[in-house]
Amino acid sequence: MTKKIISLLLALLMLLSCTAALAEGITPVILEVEGGRIMGFKMGDVNVFKGIPYAEAERFEMPQPTSWSDIRACLNYSEVCPQGQYSNNANDFCSVSNYFVEDREENTFLTVNVWTKDTNPMGILQYSNQSLRQAKCRKKPLRRYPCMKKVFCFLLSAALLLGMLCAPAMAEDDKIVIGLSLNLQDEINVKFQEIYEQLIAENYPNVELVVTNALGDTSRQLSDVESLIMQDCDVIILRAIDADSGVVCAEAIKNANIYLVLHDTNVNTDIWDVRVMGDQGDHGKAIGKAIKEYLDADESRVVNMGYIHGGTTVTVMRRETGIYDVCGDYVENGRLNTLITGNAAWSADKAMALAEDWLNTYPELNCIAAASDEMAIGVIQALEGAGVNLDEFLVFGVDGTEAGQQYIRSGELDATSYQDIPVAVAKILEVCVGLVNGQTFDKEINPNNYYPMSIDNIDALLGITAE
Q1: What is the DSSP letter of 465?
Q2: How far apart are CA 68 and CA 90, in angstroms?
Q3: pLDDT digits over 34-78, tens only?
Q4: What does the alpha-carbon distance between residue 41 and residue 25 come to, in Å, rounded to a whole number?
Q5: Which of 143, 138, 168 is nearest to 153 (CA)?
Q6: Phi, psi (degrees; rounded to nearest 5) at 27
Q7: Left (φ > 0), alpha (ψ -120 to 50) or beta: where does 54 sit?
Q8: Are 280 and 456 in contact (CB under 8 A)?
Q9: pLDDT tens, position by position, 269-309
């Protein structure tokens, strides 16, 4: 009877606090512009809107006004229209970020970026094809929900109250709910989810895992995070789509007083509790070692390389610059030349399109390295389609996925940087459970789980012994 009374009081407390909780959280800014509604975010006292579309056009056609029906998330930069020759300097932002990859569907570089001080609560920006002009606006707190959502929360709490009255009280004080916000539906993220579920089932019977996947959509990831918050997660693990949109997600999580653990991702804020991430430069060093071994074997060899990035953050770009940490001497003497770099946004199809263009533009190209195995496989498909002899062309990837391992065994992928996923996931789960139980951890943790993988050591890395 005592437990039922306690449960009743807790449910009543939840009911009373539900509406108050809705008013908490961050305040992204919703703007009404000519094309529709857009959503940006605040950084300090500045409202930031990135990639606002002002027109649309088919290739070689005159631009036309554009519009949309839903709220459009303007949280990160759109693609850059290519202008002239790209630099070979790996630290040149313009040479390695937002490189336009023609997807033969739409051109997305007809956009503007806006930064504006919030000096007038009723002032926002409206734009036309010719200029930006001020107009009436409104600001909308992210977690200030319409009346219907308050009604829904009331009914949900009432249902919970009824359930507690009609059923025996259960002692679940030790239950931990962990939210996992994934950014992409690619092979490596699917593997991450699989390992999280496996290790929780094996080692953490009192942990419940709630998984969402943003499928590469920044506005969807923001919605995913809000959903996880509403499900009373004790900890949220975030793999942000990009560093800018990740700020909004991180602020929402921390404003809800939830622990935030970053998994192999970077956001432009330091409000997270713990980040578990390997040095992305180690991925590059692994590929650099493979290139160095190839050049060391024959003094007449020269590598003319193209590099395909997946993202635009400095952290992710270390997957390329780590190569030069190992092969600096060969860069200086001209035996390792980076002819071109591009960004395929972690897409095998876009990587294939880049490779096809490069093969036509750079006949001396004899190597393409990609920031993921999935993109490297897209490169291999382009090479095979062009009739290139893969025995005379180097292809490198990152992650050591199962698909990447198959291409290594077939000889089509020369090397990859293998990521021992269970090691990283085990450390993250240890951190999540520890934070809830009052433990403290270093803010940055490197699981040291990256290893070079080639046909020479793949069996050893995977623990496969010859029969």
Answers
A1: -
A2: 37
A3: 888 887 777 666 777 888 888 887 766 778 888 887 778 777 766
A4: 12
A5: 143
A6: -130, 75
A7: alpha
A8: no
A9: 999 999 999 888 999 999 999 999 999 999 999 999 999 99
CA distances (Å), origin 93, targets 89, 90, 107, 299, 341: 9, 8, 21, 32, 11
What is the 3-state composition of the chain as percent helix, strand, coil, each rounded to the nearest 5?
Answer: 40, 20, 40
From the CB of residue 88, how many other CB atoms can be counted at a distance below 10 Å? 14
Task: In whole angstroms, give the CA distance from residue 436 to residue 274.
Answer: 13
Query: Exposed e or buried b for every residue in 117-139, given b needs 16+ CB within 10 A?
Result: eeeeeeebbbbeeeeeeeeebeb
Interatomic CA distance for residues 191 and 194, integer angstroms:
5
Whole-angstrom Cα distance, residue 42 to residue 49? Answer: 9
The two tokens of residue 215 are: 């499928």
pLDDT, tens digit, for every residue of 316-333? 889 999 999 999 999 999
Looking at residue 216, its amino acid is G
- What pLDDT is recorded for position 289? 95
To the question of pTM greater than 0.85 for the whole model, the response is no
Strands (E), 244-292: 259-263, 274-276
Tell me the DSSP string of 405-441: HHHHHHTSS-BEEEE-HHHHHHHHHHHHHHHHTT---
List alpha helices for 23-114, DSSP H: 93-96
> Which helix (H) or strand (E) covers residue 376, if one does?
helix 373-385
Whole-angstrom distance, CA of residue 336 vs CA of residue 359: 18
Q: Answer whether 178's CB lies under 8 Å from 407's CB.
A: no
CA–CA–CA angle 325, 328, 333 (5° rounding): 170
